[in-house]
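Reagents: none. Just compute today. 4-diphosphocytidyl-2-C-methyl-D-erythritol kinase.
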Amino acid sequence: MMPSENHSHFSASCSSVTEEARAKINLALHVTGQRSDGYHLLDMLVTFAGHGDRLSFAPSQTDAFTLSGRFAVTLAGDGGTNLVLKARDLLREAVGALAFPVRIHLEKNLPIASGIGGGSADAAAALRGLMRLWGATLPKETLAALALKLGADVPMCLESRPLIARGIGEKIEPTPDLPALAMVLANPLKGVSTPDVFRRLTTKNNPALTLPRTGDWIAAIAAARNDLEPLARQLVPEIGEISALLQASGALMTRMSGSGATCFGIFASMSAAEEAAATLHGERPDWYFQATGTVSGGA
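Predicted 3D structure written out:
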């Protein structure tokens, strides 16, 4: 517990803070090598959806963590292993006395283990939200290093804007000219083990990601790859089925995100994406379909 005089932090100026944990979409994922420590080297074109989880933070007498949302029950037994709590504890260690007790609420709207960075996005949102609540400042490099301790995807999610990531995900380059995209996220609600997918990789040194600057981003994305998709389809055949459903619904292109099993279809407009999501939900109410727009690189 903190000394009682520090409870002066619990003033009206410390009202609750909310952070969006946007879904991370791998528009392309090329496996380009493997380090001696086993980590795979990747080239990724990443964007972030408007849809995601939501976290709220408020001063409290003691630390607390609560859950709600469609996929909350999946995390209910996660306890101290939840990345949000790990982020809180790491940041508290870094900022010291500023870090008064906090109540964190996670609204879990994204499927678990689905290749769209849900846990990593939550951890990054926790870092952003707690920095604001605690009135803390850290050098950008320090915060990025702390994010990387939480997972290779967390530095990307800390940015939550279109980017190219290389290495194991820590070498980040903004992509300011990537436009907003209308898309449908689709998942058969079957988890895919990322280690299982990577274990199936037989070719580790695939061609690097190159993006021709033609101005036609849909064509450029379509010309890229997700080297994990064929492997994930072997583990979860529904990925092929869900991709075909998106294509048949009018998607300009479809691809799996990350290690799966979430696929995305890019549509010509948000109205087309919303119509497709509604139709697909009607056909397969047991699966996950979500129309969303992504953030633009210039935002």
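Strands lie at 17-34, 40-59, 64-68, 102-107, 163-167, 171-174, 182-187, 253-256, 263-267, 288-293.
Action item: order primers for follow-up constructs.
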